[in-house]
Design goal:
26% helix; five-stranded mixed sheet; alpha/beta
């Protein structure tokens, strides 16, 4: 095989896959997979994760190869299954001009039906001869696909099929209405349906500048799931999964900390807006809402110092100062937020002048500094501190690289389906114990 030609006779594995004996699937590795990957790239389907800088392919049938296979099948009006078999290989060879009469398989298999070929005058008794020479490849990015309506709205495009969180129609007062909106790109004239009546699809009758179609997904049943399909006749050209969830409401208590010398400067009047902002992002990502309950004035009968040290790194325990702050925790809410003037994780960090704005301590306890002052200079800093720490309490880790504070600040990061499921699990447990 060359970059201009792809023939099914180039490799024994290609020949067997073209007979569906068996077709190529996710998890297979080898030279034949690499040849298919290079053929996809030549046909105009970008494969940056599989094609190396030197032009060679990694030969691994993984997520990218599976996704590109599906996109190719959509483009060629084939059965969309992500499996490289008879129809897919034949279409790929046709596009790249590598098929000869002997290449074309005729044995039916599970990758799609084979239609009998009528004898023609130029090739009596056999399939038509396919002219050699390159054919125009498909234009990348023009296949129908579902996409998020806006960033951080409960849509995960890293899974196959893409996934959308759908809030049930009945919502608490802490944030917006039920349902979710998704876009369909390059889907003009397609019929969009749900395979489960528990999740309904309603098209928004409006023209959008990017030419996409917008659909609202709604449900009133917690846990309902449906496959949303975009079809042309009997052909499915795009799919996505929708999953409905009830709202999880977590209550928050605030403790305004003071000692013999100092006190937090965070105004109590700011707390309602802080909770509202945090709840908004949580709600649109995973239908978790926050509700402010009590505000307590917590007086510590000690001098905690200019900087409160959180950890005794030699003993690997919380410091006495932190213990004094936490001992008055009444645990009347799911989350207890302690507002202090400044803290550091340990003495070494304090000497370096490291800065912190929030800390998750476990057991529903969160410390936040007077970062509202910083927020006057950079509004994004103070606004998302509580979001970040609540994300930790709900199971998000720094190594996940999708901490919720980053969502608010950069608007480029969002939660994955598996993370949302984990957060639901934590929220359910917290709400029961609160």
């Amino acid at each position: 095989m060359t970059s201009e030609n792809f023939s099914l006779s180039d490799h024994p594995r290609l020949q067997s896959a073209a007979r569906n004996a068996p077709p190529m699937r996710w998890g297979e590795r080898g030279q034949a997979i690499a040849m298919v990957q290079q053929a996809y790239a030549t046909a105009g389907f970008a494969m940056p994760g599989s094609i190396r800088t030197d032009g060679s392919a990694d030969g691994i049938f993984g997520k990218e190869t599976y996704s590109v296979t599906r996109h190719f099948q959509v483009n060629q009006n084939l059965s969309v299954d992500g499996i490289v078999g008879q129809q897919t290989l034949t279409a790929l060879a046709d596009i790249l001009g590598g098929n000869t009469p002997g290449d074309r398989p005729v044995t039916p298999g599970p990758n799609g039906p084979v239609h009998p070929v009528k004898p023609g005058p130029h090739n009596p008794g056999g399939p038509p001869i396919v002219p050699k020479g390159p054919k125009p490849g498909p234009k990348p990015g023009k296949h129908p696909q579902f996409a998020e309506e806006r960033i951080a709205s409960g849509f995960d495009n890293t899974v196959v099929p893409p996934w959308q969180m759908v809030p049930t129609a009945i919502q608490p007062n802490s944030s917006g209405g039920g349902g979710a909106i998704v876009r369909l790109l390059h889907g003009e004239g397609l019929t969009v349906t749900s395979d489960n009546s528990l999740i309904k699809v309603h098209e928004i009758p409006k023209s959008f500048p990017d030419g996409s179609r917008h659909f609202r997904l709604t449900s009133e049943v917690d846990g309902a799931r449906a496959m949303i399909s975009a079809r042309s006749g009997t052909h499915t050209l795009a799919r996505m999964e929708a999953e409905a969830t009830k709202p999880y409401v977590l209550t928050v208590d605030f403790y305004m900390v003071s000692d013999k010398v100092r006190k937090t400067k965070r105004p109590v009047s700011e707390l309602a807006q802080l909770v509202k902002d945090t709840s908004k992002l949580l709600a649109q990502q995973c239908n978790i809402h926050l509700e402010k309950k009590h505000v307590y004035a917590e007086k510590v009968n000690a001098d905690l110092g200019e900087v409160i040290l959180v950890r005794d790194m030699q003993k690997r325990v919380e410091t006495q100062d932190v213990y004094l702050i936490y001992q008055a925790c009444k645990h009347t809410a799911d989350l207890s937020v302690f507002c202090v003037w400044e803290y550091e994780m340990n003495a070494e960090n304090a000497e370096k002048g490291d800065t912190h704005t929030g800390l998750w301590s476990g057991q529903g306890r969160i410390i936040i500094e007077d970062d509202f002052v910083t927020a006057k200079v950079n509004k994004k800093v103070g606004k998302w501190t509580l979001m970040h720490e609540v994300g930790h309490e709900l199971g998000l880790k720094h190594r996940d690289k999708t901490i919720m504070a980053d969502i608010g600040q950069t608007m480029t990061s969002y939660l994955r389906k598996t993370q949302v499921h984990e957060m639901w699990k934590h929220a359910k447990k917290m709400a029961k114990s609160g």
